[in-house]
Amino acid sequence: MADDDLARLAALVRTIPDFPQPGIQFRDITTLIADPHGFALATDLLAIRAARYRPDILVAVEARGFIFAAAMARVMGLGVVLARKPGKLPGAAIGVDYALEYGSDRLEMHEGMLSAGQRTVLVDDLLATGGTLLAAAELVGRTGAIAAAALCVIDLPDLGGAKRLADAGVPVETLIAFAGD
């Protein structure tokens, strides 16, 4: 993986100032997804990194994690389990509540999708504070499966998510980082 590849990916991410509130520099990954070469490069790089953790299945975190995990799973010959917001899954689900900067949220997964000892890699588009990925790791753990790693396209390192995940025993790998967010 060349630094040029990572610089190319970073250039495909659009920054939208003051969204969703003043002072936030929103990193919009939809411009990267819309670029066929950038999307393929990001997916390939994530799949290469995921393979190091020998996953049996990928866990996609709502919503943009679905996009990357599905493409990675196709390349890797794996399946995908969805970690969704509440009320989105039909049938029996297990869930975990987690804290946000301003309030709380919940992630859910269909019951019986993971089994004890199964190795998973969590996939999301962006790592900020790590709250959502920590909740996904907890959800995986409740099934007896193992959250072997978390992979994201973007890291906002100043928000401390990678450290929080590492402190919880979940290794993190990202492709690009934007400081100061």
TrEMBL record:
The annotated pathway is: Purine metabolism; AMP biosynthesis via salvage pathway; AMP from adenine: step 1/1
Q: Which reaction does it catalyse?
A: AMP + diphosphate = 5-phospho-alpha-D-ribose 1-diphosphate + adenine
Signal sequence segment: none
Chief location of this protein within or outside the cell: cytoplasm
Q: Could you tell me where this protein is found in the cell?
A: Cytoplasm
Is Nucleotidyltransferase a UniProt keyword of this protein? no
- Put simply, this protein is called Adenine phosphoribosyltransferase
Q: Which gene encodes it?
A: apt
